[in-house]
Amino acid sequence: MAIVTIASFKVTNAESTNTGTKVEKSVAWYAANSKEAHDQNKECHDNPNIQSTPECVNSLHALQIKFAGGNGRR
Fold this sequence. Notes:
The chain is mostly helical. The chain has helices at about 25-30, 35-45, 55-65. The longest helix has 14 residues, at about 55-65.
């Protein structure tokens, strides 16, 4: 019997704006850019004040997906 896990997460634009405003990177972007996801996750781990920001939430979620094999199984 297969167990299916459905996760909900926010997907955001991964591009920078012309004004220099930082735009959140999506879970998909972090999943495709593992080094950046690891770097962001380390920064978030080292700084508890930013752990609830979209950058931290998205990078952690992408790493969880990659380590779980992308299908939610653990």
